[in-house]
Design a protein that fits this description.
Helix content of chain A: under 10%
Distance between the termini of chain B: 36 Å
Number of helices of chain A: 0
Radius of gyration of chain A: 13 Å
Number of strands of chain A: 11
Shape of chain B: globular
Strand content of chain A: over 45%
Number of strands of chain B: 11
Distance between the termini of chain A: 36 Å
Number of helices of chain B: 0
Largest sheet of chain B: 6 strands, mixed
Strand content of chain B: over 45%
Helix content of chain B: under 10%
Largest sheet of chain A: 7 strands, mixed
Oligomer: heterodimer
Structural class of chain B: mainly beta
Radius of gyration of chain B: 13 Å
């Protein structure tokens, strides 16, 4: 299965700032997803990252708050903009490879003060 | 009601015990995943099932499509098995998006 890395692994940020999270895969994948896990909650899909076009957002998530890029088949970024303490979560990327589900990244633990 | 329900939510057992975690779902699925999440937050994919049973080491996963139910078993449990175990389903219509259960927090005491 694909090897997925995320950067940073964790960060502590001040409210009002923005953080960009990177997801890198060691092979080309067909689909990339971004999930959020708020404390004590299950994972929730933020959006599907589309290569070369705008991401597809789930209900409750908007591009202005969570801009996403996917310039090629192995890389995507998620930005958490104008952060507030409610954005403190684990953010995970997930991929679907050519042969099916490819797994999850190790996650980025974000704390907003 | 959540589309994916897990039970129990929390489970504490002694080392060596046989562990069962259950997952029920209410939608048509193309696959079901069992995932393991350690305290650092990273998620490891344990199994992907669409029918029958799979075994990997001390872990066994089964699925009954007709009953919309899956179980994850751990034999000869060990403290290093302590983690949150998450059931997730890929809907039949959903472009491979996953719907997650709330997770089961497992603690194995030595």
């Amino acid at each position: 299965s694909a090897v997925i890395s995320q950067k940073p692994s964790r960060d502590i940020c001040q409210r009002g700032t923005s953080l960009t999270i990177q997801c890198q895969v060691d092979s080309q994948v067909t689909m990339m997803f971004w999930y959020r896990q708020q404390p004590g909650q299950s994972l929730t899909l933020i959006a599907t990252a589309n290569q070369g076009s705008e991401a597809t957002y789930e209900s409750g998530f908007v591009i202005d708050k969570f801009p996403i890029s996917r310039p090629n088949l192995t890389f995507s970024t998620l930005t958490v903009s104008n952060m507030s303490p409610e954005d403190s979560s684990i953010y995970l990327c997930s991929v679907v490879g050519l042969a099916g589900p490819g797994g999850f990244g190790p996650g980025t633990r974000l704390t907003v003060l | 009601k959540n589309e994916v329900e897990q039970s129990p939510q929390n489970l504490t057992a002694q080392e060596g015990e046989f562990i069962t975690i259950n997952c029920s779902y209410s939608v048509g699925i193309s696959a079901l995943h069992w995932l393991q999440q350690h305290p650092g937050g990273g998620i490891v994919s344990l199994f992907m099932l669409s029918s029958g049973k799979k075994k990997h080491g001390r872990l066994i996963a089964t699925i009954n499509i007709q009953e919309k139910h899956s179980s994850l078993h751990i034999t000869a449990s060990h403290p290093r098995d302590s983690a949150v175990y998450i059931c997730a389903v890929a809907r039949l219509q959903g472009a491979q998006k996953l719907v997650f259960g709330q997770g089961t927090r497992l603690t194995i005491n030595p």
